[in-house]
Write a structure and sequence with these properties.
By secondary structure, the chain is an alpha+beta fold. The protein contains four helices and ten strands, in the order H-H-H-E-E-E-E-E-E-E-E-E-E-H. Bound molecules: dinuclear copper ion. Dinuclear copper ion binds next to loops.
Length: 254
Amino acid sequence: MREFLARYMPTDASAHGQNLDTISALVHWLMFILLVGWGLYFIFVLWRFRASRNPKASYHGVKSKISTYSEAGIVVVEAILLIGFSIPAWSRWVEPPPAGSNPIEIRVVAEQFAWNVHYPGPDGVFGRVDSSLVSATNPLGLDPADRKGADDILSINQLHLPVNRPVIVRLSSKDVIHSFALPTMRVKQDAIPGMEIQVYFTPVRTNGEERWEIACAQLCGLGHYRMRGFLTVHTEEEFAAWLGENAPAPAPVG
Ligand code: CUA
């Protein structure tokens, strides 16, 4: 069953992905049963109330209570899926990773039509940003006067993460509503101008040779189709090397 579904789903490489895929599969099975069940019932009703046997139209139709009981049964199953599976999964997902789990925190700022990724750098603190400083060469509006931002790392459409470490993404948008979608991480969250929304996930394996996408899942303008980035999940050593390569040279002290 799992292999069967895996053929039709993107690679799942996140800690919470299996849970979400199970719920998705259960909902699809319910929908499949409903489709077949109501389809058969429809055919039965067409036959049962055919004109040759019912020269005079019956305004009461089916007298059996079976369809009513079925509907009640469906409501119960849907309530179980919602209350027993979906809400608990959701409440786990919106819970920030515990501080002891050493989460990595990054900012992702969407714009027409790119993903700006902001790393706090070795000091672990994001430099101050100010929307009035945003320009073509300073896409995030980093304040050059703030020393904490001197070691910050920016990348465009490239999200690099270490494996097996919880990720906190602080998501926002510079212009319109976008949707930050990482199919392999089973993450999809709207990026809304004026709001900062946090999303959490943990990559559980590296991407290896696979190309993992950042997709924009909300129609956001003419360039929506090309608002695409890539996610690279590194081993811890590779990630440290990547950070080292991309960190700006230390500012002269003085
Ligand atoms: Cu951004 Cu679609």
